């Protein structure tokens, strides 16, 4: 059913604990991502079954799997924990997909492991389907991300904050589960040989162009910096708030991982925080670039001895140079994205000001980020009515509009091409918080239709379709401020 090739288990002994999923009473498939399974060259029909449900619940290991719990550490909200690890997750194994890319197949909610600490090792249906929706939406938006392969219920009831909830497991796919925290785990224990082994593994898997080079560890740091800069720029360009950017939730591959209290903004406000536990706003929307840089500095610390084993001052200087260039790398990616959102193909010195000027207007009015940008394609073709209507007082927007129109006149792209390009960068449909909540509430009661429908809508976020108007709107005013919870 799977053509496993388990490099992590094979090459990184001592970095994990071989482990099995917990047996559960009644595994049942809630959703199987057949298209993704196909792209992974899995036996789609054989897995879309009760046996598949048992496998994705962690109840039964398929042939060729080498399930294991990975060790990692991490800074959580700035405080270091030397031992976290997969407390409720298992790496089932790796497969090579149709594009030749190695992919982890990973279960979340499959029972206790040696890393569970006080936790029960379980997950419940709401957060599992939430990760399913958001991960697939991010993928469709073109944001590097883990993806949902299957969601199953286990037939168990699990105690959570609001009482008993149906137990569930998410099977997800990633280009790897190497985290900044994986490096921190071995650095904190002073395991130099293991760190080198891990860094070489990460290079081979994600940055093979660096393999064998004498400066490869510094190169790794720079490569992760640029991937993360590109990733966070995309988050910002789509209004995504991750919510728990702990170093254990930051990948070496540059994919988004661990959808917990994440959500998309409606009204534009850099101070937006959704997570109930983020009291200080450390992981607020507008802080994400700085936090990414902070996390990369933690990665840099783990690599110092590899960068220059003989001269620690030199290693610090080199690593600092790499990390200090994060803002530049980020800004480049962000501004390129903003140009596309604004219909610009030429580069001009005033473009940064133009982009931040619009954001400033959005902020004063708390205008809907996604809707305003989408409406700009009509404004670019001469009709700004829809854009104006998104501001309670459009005066500031009018001023900006005049600047933007003057700027557009200095472009020589045909209008139809410009509008098509803008519409490919500015989604109509994002996972609106009230829609996600409604879909999850129904699913928890056994009605999966709103969940399925939402997935369908979000699979094509840039294509406006008749009858889906309600999916393009922000939350109604009686929805109130939105608070999210970690998926424990
Ligand atoms: P997260 O907030 O999901 O990134 O998880 C942070 C750490 O807590 C990881 O080591 C998880 O494995 C662990 N964890 C989260 N929830 C549970 C749970 N229900 N049982 C055991 N460990 C958990
Ligand atoms: Mg995590």
Task: Produce a short descriptive summary.
By secondary structure, the chain is α+β, with helices and mostly antiparallel strands. 44% of the residues lie in helices and 13% in strands.
Shape: globular
Tally the beta strands.
12
Question: What does the main sheet amount to?
Answer: 6 strands, antiparallel
The low-pLDDT segments are none
First and last CA, distance: 30 Å
N to C succession of SSEs: HEEHHHEEEEEEHEEHHHEEHHHHHHHHHH
As a percent range, the share of helical residues equals 40-55%
Spell out which ligands are present.
Answer: adenosine monophosphate, magnesium ion
Helical stretch tally: 18
Average pLDDT level:
97
Rg on CA atoms, Å: 23 Å
Percent of residues in beta strands? 5-15%
Structural class: alpha+beta
Descriptive tags:
488 residues, alpha+beta, six-stranded antiparallel beta sheet, two-stranded antiparallel ribbon, 18 helices, 13% strand, binds adenosine monophosphate, binds magnesium ion
Describe the structure.
This protein is α+β, with helices and mostly antiparallel strands. Among the domains are: about 5-175, no CATH class; about 345-410, no CATH class. The protein has helices at about 5-10, 35-40, 45, 50-55, 125-140, 180-190, 190-205, 215-240, 290-305, 310-325, 325-340, 350-365, 370-380, 385-390, 395-410, 415-425, 435-445, 450-460, and strands at about 15-20, 30, 70, 75, 80, 90-95, 100-110, 125, 145-160, 165-175, 240, 265. The strands form four sheets. Strands 2, 6, 7, 8, 9 and 10 form a six-stranded antiparallel sheet that branches. A two-stranded antiparallel ribbon has the order 1-3. A hairpin with a 2-residue loop joins strand 4 (about 75) and strand 5 (about 80). Helix 5 runs parallel beside helix 18 and helix 7 crosses helix 9 (about 290-305). Bound molecules: adenosine monophosphate and magnesium ion (MG). Magnesium ion binds near residues 248, 249 and 258. Adenosine monophosphate binds next to loops.
